[in-house]
Amino acid sequence: MVPATGRTKWVKLGFTGASAALALAAMAPHMAGAATGDVAPAGPEAQAAAPAGPEGASADAIAKGRELFNNWSCGTCHALKDADASGHVGPALDGNPHLTEAFIVDRVTNGQGPMPAFGGQLSEEEITELAAYIHQVAAK
């Protein structure tokens, strides 16, 4: 069990052995201030360098989604070219025809298999933003 970021409740991870070490390593940046709630948000400089996104998505939306993806260490497990992520634990997100926004929201919220549920750690709005980002940038 690990403390949920910025929360007073605990989240049980369904991992053992090496997968537990990977999950904890991925979550470490978010747990640094978990005991006190002192998790520093990314500064404006992280948003200022946002490149333009794909058709139909604003540069701000893409930048926010990329920031969520990187801040929550999604790239530790998943490969996504736009985020310069090359994880090999979970499925690669680029070129995956099953990636709808609803599918991504469900997996991020509820988890499945080795993927932990982030529904108690990310807000619904953050999960929606992350799903929209992944869906928009994943190379088809």
SSE topology sketch:
Layout: E1 2-3, E2 10-11, H1 17-31, H2 44-48, H3 59-71, E3 79-80, E4 85-86, H4 101-110, H5 124-137
Antiparallel strand pairs: 1-2, 3-4
Task: Describe the structure concisely for a colleague.
The chain is mainly alpha-helical. The protein has helices spanning 17-31, 44-48, 59-71, 101-110, 124-137; strands at 2-3, 10-11, 79-80, 85-86. The model is unreliable at 1-54 (pLDDT under 50).
Structural class: mainly alpha
| Poorly predicted sequence stretches spanning 5 or more consecutive residues | 1-54
Give the termini separation.
37 Å
CATH class category of the domain at 43-137: Mainly Alpha
Strand order of the largest sheet: 1-2
Structural features, described:
Mean pLDDT is 73; it is low at 1-54. This protein has a domain at 43-137: Orthogonal Bundle (Cytochrome Bc1 Complex, Chain D, domain 2). It is mainly α. The strands form two sheets. A two-stranded antiparallel ribbon has the order 1-2. The N and C termini lie far apart (37 Å). The protein has helices at 17-31, 44-48, 59-71, 101-110, 124-137, and strands spanning 2-3, 10-11, 79-80, 85-86. It is built from five helices and four strands, in the order ββαααββαα.
